[in-house]
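Give me structure tokens for this 370-residue protein.
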Amino acid sequence: MAAAHTPQESMGAAAEAARRALGGSFAAISMWERERGRLRVLVNVGELMAGEERLPEDESYPVHDFPEIAEFVHEHWAAGGEPHAWVETAEGVGTGVGVGSAPPSGSWGRVAALRRRGRGSCVVAPIVLHGRAWGELYVARAAGRPVFDRDDADFATVLASVTAAGLAQTERLEEARRLAFTDPLTGLGNRRAVDIRLDEALEAHHADGTVVSLVVCDLNGLKRVNDTLGHAVGDRLLERFGSLLSICGAMLPGALVARLGGDEFCLLGVGPPADEVVRVADELCRRAAELELGEGVACGIASTGDPIGPVPSARRLFRLADAAQYRAKAARSLKPVVAGRDGGAEDAVIRLADTSPAHPPERRRFRGRR
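Here you go.
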């Protein structure tokens, strides 16, 4: 689980390890969705029957069909016990298992499922996360195989506890990853997220000609808002523009929108034609001009779909987009400025991007309070 790169991989690893450890033919991990009142299957492994998929999109069952997860577990805790796995068989509920067997209320839904899928028995272990019933680990054996016993239930209880610890670690890692690539104020991506995605996009461009477009936006008037109305109002302006950028970015499939720092934002498009990106940027400029606070936005665009010359690195595309944005800001343009569209390689924007790194577009990156 620790080596997995995604929550799905982590749960898949846990389910497969539990299946092998318990000698099962099939295993699944399900989550109790309290708000829906359903037990949702997240992963299935082993011998899959009709209707079962390894990563089902929406395989879920009403909790009242499997009441143990919502009722028995809590009653057991209230009596001072600990969550414990139980066994069910295709012949009946908790046959001959004794302590740790299925709850008295029983679930004929599981028995019917065992029969329907040609399985002889199953062991069900509650997964407890952060002190609450989170879901369950389910391992089954095919009909004709030895039925699970008390020792198997004890072992499954331990495996469910280990799985819970792994899920908690996965949650912490996911949160760390989210924070590492997210701007805390706006919830958009941050510069690190853009750098990684842009490097990957340019690799695709060099391999097969995928169009890569970068829109760099400078939110005008933030300093005035901060100085006259306070930083809290300035933050609201940043959040509002971030939402607007997100809405416009959704017009481009797969686009990444981010806050680079201060009053500077960007939109990275991978795949759509340059004209489509320009259209979206034009819409962004129009909507930004209608915001109650601020003074609109200056947008610069650089796209490999335009005559901008070779783009060997992400830095080159950023310099071109920065230079275009600088031109837009200097001219107080209400529309985006696009590198290469007024003269190709001789475009004034491209000449500006090819000047010394000490040029204003480079100096002004990340200015502002945040």
